């Protein structure tokens, strides 16, 4: 017996079973009962909330003949007549689902509309579902307008989209619009419990809570994840197993971090991140879990009675809620959300995580980590805004090879009359000594570091690139990604996928050749992105290639290589500046002078 995935097996088959969309169900049920039928419906909402399901139920409601074959239009399709069964199994000739994402052109729509002039073959109504309708080309929309405005009485349009903003107003105005809501985690969790009870599969409530949260409002994703979790847990769902499968970070790590932040303990924060790194837990997952915890804390701070007794995490959240002021909780939550977006930009995710957490310490209201006062020694770091624009030069575009970029390596030597032991200004300075606190900038140019092959790991491995482990497949992948970048054959989002992917296997024997990529960020692992990257790679290699994406911690991506290369060049530039005779003379002249970390720039 073939196994039917849960998302298909438990697709809602009637309005009663459509979970979490009561407002839509009520409106449609009334319309069907009173036979006040509109000719075009538009269902909007994120993926997996039930747009296709509601369309099929509507098609059944319009075409159901009842168990005895004598029924009419009904809000409660019987599910057993030929029409109901054929629509459920996708065989009903008068119900057509067209995916506009892959059929964007005017030809496909014209073909569909050509069919519309014929009366239904077996049913009462023809029902056309155009999914992802916003993807249609303008000419396709125009071709559809006339029929959409005055369709034959036997034709019903159902349009569905995740992005109603992109649907032309002329189309919107001809449709009755319903917004399907993303489902609350609680709703998803309850539904999963029902499904698993029907499947006779044991599941811990904590496991369901994790799955429901990971589904982000999509019931289909929740059921797919549950399928995976059942396979992963060999038939049962434990919280620990699901947590491991999702790569979700144990709540205790988030608790430890929030405690350290509340106490202003930077060392503890760093130690906690080291712990996460050694366990191989994801930085994104950590911030997600922290976000969930902080959100729970904020609710408890505002409404202490909101404590959910059945939630095992609630008492801890209540205890932590007492450690921070409500505005501090809000503040940390906001940094968590923004920090997640920038993790992908960091050379490696853990250094990105450290920066996000240190930002919470640095900017926390109440200033637990105020900078130590150094009134006697003005430094450039005390006034970064004043010095940064002076010292930095516009970076040369990486693809401009004609002019050898003269690296402007810059050192700023802060000079204060009071603290400078040499009373005479050095000859290369103006006669007028600077007033106290003024910052002098000396600009020193040095030879450009020899261009190095990216493949070679840097001699002193900088901390930021420590997680990078070069591999031969990584060499090959970095090479093709760089060629795709040069050919500009991939868009920004697809490039992000390419840059964050580690090539873990290439099967040249397979037809077509299979390239297997490991990608950590779930948001990058979409089929659409993969298809685009696959097309670009096939074009580059001039042969069909199949891309497979797997989840996991990547350790040799083009992004990590670029980060390592940046760090190596930075390191080199700093060495050059330290060894520069002029800089050494300056440093000797002014004992308090120092090179501001980060002010050395390579170009
Ligand atoms: Zn029926």
Structure in a nutshell:
Helix content is 45%, strand content 10%.
Please supply descriptive tags for the structure shown above:
603 residues, alpha/beta, five-stranded parallel β-sheet, 10 strands, globular, binds zinc ion
| Overall mean confidence score, pLDDT | 78
Strand order of the largest sheet: 2-3-4-1-5
Helix/strand-derived class?
Answer: alpha/beta
Cα gyration radius (Å): 31 Å
Task: Give a verbal description of the structure.
With 603 residues, the protein is an alpha/beta fold. The chain is 45% helix and 10% strand. It has 23 helices and 10 strands. It has helices at residues 6-9, 22-33, 51-63, 82-88, 106-116, 138-149, 169-172, 185-198, 205-214, 219-232, 239-246, 251-263, 266-279, 283-302, 314-321, 326-342, 349-363, 384-391, 472-486, 492-499, 527-541, 558-579, 581-589; strands at residues 40-44, 95-99, 126-131, 155-161, 176-179, 408-414, 439-445, 501-507, 513-519, 545-551. It has a 5-stranded parallel beta sheet with strand order 2-3-4-1-5, with helices on one face. A hairpin with a 5-residue loop joins strand 8 (501-507) and strand 9. Helix 12 crosses helix 14. The model is unreliable at 367-421 and 423-466 (pLDDT under 50). Zinc ion binds at residues 64-66, 77-79, 81, 83-84.
List the helices and strands and how they pair.
Blueprint: H1 6-9, H2 22-33, E1 40-44, H3 51-63, H4 82-88, E2 95-99, H5 106-116, E3 126-131, H6 138-149, E4 155-161, H7 169-172, E5 176-179, H8 185-198, H9 205-214, H10 219-232, H11 239-246, H12 251-263, H13 266-279, H14 283-302, H15 314-321, H16 326-342, H17 349-363, H18 384-391, E6 408-414, E7 439-445, H19 472-486, H20 492-499, E8 501-507, E9 513-519, H21 527-541, E10 545-551, H22 558-579, H23 581-589
Parallel strand pairs: 1-4, 1-5, 2-3, 3-4, 9-10
Antiparallel strand pairs: 6-7, 8-9
The structure holds zinc ion.
Zinc ion binds next to helix 4.
């Amino acid at each position: 017996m073939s196994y039917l995935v849960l998302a298909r097996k438990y697709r809602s088959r009637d309005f009663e079973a459509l979970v979490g969309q009561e407002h839509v169900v009520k409106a449609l049920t009334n319309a069907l009962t009173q036979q006040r039928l509109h000719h075009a419906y538009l269902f909007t909402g994120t993926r997996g909330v039930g747009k296709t399901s509601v369309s099929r139920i509507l098609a059944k409601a319009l075409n159901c003949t009842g168990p005895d074959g004598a029924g009419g239009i009904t809000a409660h399709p019987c599910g057993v007549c030929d029409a109901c069964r054929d629509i459920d199994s996708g065989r009903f000739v008068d119900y057509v689902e067209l995916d506009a994402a892959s059929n964007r052109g005017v030809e496909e729509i014209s073909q569909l509309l050509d069919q519309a002039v014929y009366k239904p073959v077996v049913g009462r109504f023809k029902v056309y579902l155009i999914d992802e309708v916003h993807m249609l080309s303008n000419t396709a929309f125009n071709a559809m307008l006339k029929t959409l405005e005055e369709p034959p009485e036997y034709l019903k349009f159902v349009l569905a989209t995740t992005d109603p903003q992109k649907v032309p107003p002329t189309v919107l105005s001809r449709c009755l619009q319903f917004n399907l809501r993303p489902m609350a985690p609680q709703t998803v969790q309850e539904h999963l419990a029902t499904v698993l009870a029907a499947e006779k599969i044991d599941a811990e409530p904590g496991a369901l809570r994790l799955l429901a949260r990971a589904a982000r409002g999509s019931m289909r994703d929740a059921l797919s994840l549950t399928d995976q979790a059942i396979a992963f847990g060999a038939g049962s769902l434990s919280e620990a197993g699901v947590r491991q499968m999702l790569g979700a970070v144990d709540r205790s790590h988030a608790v430890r971090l929030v405690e350290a932040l509340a106490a202003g303990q930077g060392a503890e924060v760093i130690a906690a991140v080291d712990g996460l790194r050694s366990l191989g837990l994801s930085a994104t997952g950590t911030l997600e879990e922290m976000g969930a915890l902080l959100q729970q804390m904020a609710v408890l701070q505002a409404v202490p009675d909101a404590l959910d007794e059945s939630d095992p995490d609630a008492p801890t959240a209540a205890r932590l809620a007492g450690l921070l002021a409500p505005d501090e909780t809000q503040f940390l939550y906001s940094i968590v959300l923004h920090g997640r977006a920038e993790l992908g930009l960091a050379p490696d995710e853990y250094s990105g995580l450290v920066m996000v957490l240190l930002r919470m310490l640095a900017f926390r209201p109440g200033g637990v980590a105020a900078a130590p006062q150094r009134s006697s020694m003005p430094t450039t770091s005390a006034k970064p805004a004043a010095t940064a624009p002076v010292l930095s030069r516009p970076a040369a575009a990486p693809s401009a090879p004609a002019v050898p970029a003269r690296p402007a390596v810059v050192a700023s030597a802060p000079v204060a009359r009071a603290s400078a032991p040499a009373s005479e200004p050095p000859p290369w300075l103006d006669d007028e000594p600077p007033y106290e606190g003024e910052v002098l900038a000396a600009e020193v140019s040095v030879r450009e570091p020899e261009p190095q092959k990216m493949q070679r790991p840097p001699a002193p491995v900088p901390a930021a690139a420590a997680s990078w482990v070069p591999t031969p497949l990584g060499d090959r992948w970095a090479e093709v990604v760089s060629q795709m970048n040069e050919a500009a054959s991939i868009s920004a989002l697809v490039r992000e996928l390419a840059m964050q992917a580690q090539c873990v296997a290439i099967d040249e024997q397979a037809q077509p050749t299979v390239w297997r990529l490991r990608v950590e960020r779930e948001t990058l692992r979409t089929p659409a992105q993969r298809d685009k990257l696959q097309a670009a790679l096939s074009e580059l290699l001039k042969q069909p290639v199949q891309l497979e994406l797997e989840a996991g911690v990547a350790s040799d991506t083009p992004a990590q290589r670029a980060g390592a290369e940046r760090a190596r060049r930075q390191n080199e530039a700093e060495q050059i500046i330290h060894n520069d005779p002029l800089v050494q003379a300056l440093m000797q002249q002014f004992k308090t002078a120092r090179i501001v970390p980060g002010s050395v720039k390579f170009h």
